[in-house]
């Protein structure tokens, strides 16, 4: 049983990355474009362009979420996304109460730790990172096997 689960691990991690990236990108799209209900409490409204920190957070959510979704630059995007969620928790939520359940910060905490996990695990299966890595490894192998010109 353990061997089967170990073989499926890259695919489970890839599906985890896809779901988390999609959810994060949806938050950014809602804030920037008013889709999916828009910003919470605004009846479909958007974040005004350039407002600190909300507009910048929405841009990070959209771009990093999309990159994580497709598995391109996953580790770098996940570092930025995790940091933005840590900032959101400590700047916005922590001042209201100590525990995330009390201050409404469960979502930023979960996103922060999910992205931190992706920093250390990478994209898993089904990501563009692996496609490009396998192509560059094949090209490197081909170059190494070519005869040296005299």
From TrEMBL:
Matching InterPro entries: DoxX (IPR032808), DoxX-like_oxidoreductase (IPR051907)
Membrane-protein topology: Multi-pass membrane protein
Protein's cellular compartments: Cell membrane
Transmembrane segments: 12-34, 54-72, 107-128
Pfam families: DoxX (PF07681)
UniProt entry tagged with the keyword Cell membrane: yes
UniProt similarity note: Belongs to the DoxX family.
Protein name: DoxX family protein
Organism: Streptomyces cynarae
